[in-house]
Amino acid sequence: MDQSALRQKLQASLLPHEIEMAWPLILEIQELKKQKNAVILGHNYMTPDVYHGVSDFTGDSLGLARKAAETRADIILFNGVHFMAETASIVNPHKKVLIADPQAGCSLAESITAVDVRRLKTEYPGVPVVTYVNCSAEVKAETDICCTSANAVAVVNSLPDPAVIFLPDAYLARNVARQTDKEIILWEKGKCMVHEQYLPGDIRAVRKQFQNLTVITHPECSPEVVAESDFSGSTSQMADFIAKSPAENIMLVTECSMGDNLRSLFPEKSFVSTCQTCPHMKKITLRKVRDALLHEQYEVKVAPEIQVKALRAVERMLELG
Q1: Where do the CATH 3.40.50.10800 domains begin and end in the chain?
Q2: Burial 206-215 (b: 16+ CB within 10 A, else e)
Q3: Which end of the chain has the least Cβ crowding within 10 Å, N or C?
Q4: What pLDDT sits at residue 62?
Q5: The sheet that has 249-253: what strands, in order across it?
Q6: Which residues are registered as beta bridge partners of 58?
Q7: Overall fold of domain 3-103+281-295
Q8: What does the pLDDT read at residue 61?
């Protein structure tokens, strides 16, 4: 992307002085990528300067997992949270995978351990385990197949078994259960610290203020919140839905940077949000991205015995398309 086009994208969400402050770092990072044959993957919840400014590929966790598996770059810098960088390392064990801040975690990933999964497998012998990719490599290694919010229902329905253990997101599990005939055994402790803050009343209050409003929620929200919405899907599915919607006003019930990053794609839309922020995603800043590339620091490695087992679960997910 040329510099004028990039500036135009940034102008949709950032003030002029914010762009000028970010610009030297953006140019430095772009140059470092060329020098080091590095590729930067940017999740949809990154701030606009990171998302538009330096990311080579952007999207949800499923799309970025595919890009990680396909890249020929020597270095992968994952602008997202730690489990995402781990997933990139799982599918690229011989590449250098970096994260800008190793403390960028996830409440879902922290809600469950491999020991917990093994205990559930003992309690429900023979029942296959589906884990949302928002979990550690050790948990993925105990898994039959991974999924994302974009393909969770398809993954569950791809299994021949009448029951499935679905981990770790309890709300996503309940939303999947409404779309399948299978019995879903869930993990009550797993919830996203951002999406669990939304309440049905948040949506009802906004509907009173705006006409021609379309409400789009992430399936990590509670089923009660999803029931109040017009559409529920992954961050990439949200963008696809907006592209087809005639609605003038869009309420995104998800992490607030999603709306910031979509404004440049849909300048004719007005984005309305109660705007809940993920403190882990916001640990990733341009300066930290620059430092990670410059010093090739904060490499994310997965133990070989864990990587081999986790890879099977991730590859089964990617094979579904």
Answers
A1: 3-103+281-295, 109-191, 195-272
A2: beeebeebbb
A3: C
A4: 74
A5: 231-232, 213-217, 249-253, 270-272
A6: 42
A7: Rossmann fold (3.40.50)
A8: 79
pTM (whole model) above 0.85: yes
Structure tokens, 7 = 């500036």
Cα 130 from chain centroid?
Answer: 17
CA pair distance 190, 187, nearest whole angstrom: 6
Burial of 299 per CB tally in 10 Å (0-12, 13-18, 19+): middle
Residue 193 tokens read as 């610290």
Q: What percentage of the chain reaches a pLDDT higher than 90?
A: 82
Instruction: Select the more confidently predicted residue: 263 or 185.
Output: 185
CB atoms within 10 A of CB 125: 6
pLDDT, averaged across the chain? 94
Classify the C-alpha dihedral 170-171-177-179 as positive or negative: negative
Fold category of 109-191 in CATH: Rossmann fold (3.40.50)
Strand partners, 231: 216
In this structure, which CATH number among 3.40.50.1820, 3.30.420.40, 3.40.50.10800, 3.20.20.140 belongs to the domain 195-272?
3.40.50.10800
Predicted pLDDT at 272: 86
Which has the closest alpha carbon to 282: 191, 194, 171, 170? 194
